[in-house]
Amino acid sequence: MKILFCLLLIFLFISPSFGQEDTSPDWIKVLSYGVGNKTDQNVLSIEEANSRINQCTPPDFAYANLLLGNDSLVEQVIVKYDYKEKVLLIRHENQIIVGAPNMVKRVQFSDSSINELINVSELGRSYGRRGFYSIILEEGGNFLLKYYAIEGKENRKEGNQATLQSISVFEKKEVEIIFTRIEEYLIMKENELFVLENLKSKSLAKLGNQSEKLKSYVKENKIKYKNENDLKSFTEYFWSL
Fold first, then answer.
1. Residue 231: Cβ-neighbour burial (10 angstroms; 0-12, 13-18, 19+)
2. Is there a cis peptide before residue 58, judged by omega within 30 degrees of 0?
3. Which of 66, 69, 79, 103 could, after both became Cys, cross-link 1 (CB 3.0–4.6 A)?
4. Helix (H) or strand (E) holding 91
5. Tell me, what DSSP letter sits at residue 171?
6. Does this model's pTM top 0.85?
7. pLDDT digits (tens, 9 = 90+) for 136-151
């Protein structure tokens, strides 16, 4: 990541076209240049960005500091993260710049009520996850995280048998994209990442050899999976074992 970031910076500084046609800060050029998402352009209208309220965290734009791949810090950026398209939306002047998440290690929001974001690549193997985790709790290299995503899956409509008999074998089948919202909780302990599917025995057994203690803690303290304050308490107890 650091090598790619440096090469992009060198390219931007030596390319005359950037200096003549674009007055955006260099860090914006780097983030925008790195976007490879086919469904997004590098610039959006403010109206389009605002319409994505149900696929962004935070839902509205907020001030944040960006820790870039080369460990430099860009302060007081107006930004939100689109977890469906896996891109950062950055408000700059009168337009929205679409930025590549792989260029950013962390997004640190000025409002303490908004969870900090950390790039999935910063915490080892991502198991197919892309973009950012939302940090609910962090302590000494251990994390309680939430992963948001909206994933599309093809649903090929086959039709009934009578319909199929009249269709040419060369005719394309109708394809519908079904989108599913994903919200996962994950716990990192001593550099090992666990997915916390729920607080039932089968899920707790995947957290190591302390599952009986964890089950007792959940029962005695009436820990609820959907309550993030409860999950914080559970996670701190898990870290202590």
1. buried
2. yes
3. 69
4. strand 87-92
5. S
6. no
7. 999 999 999 999 999 8
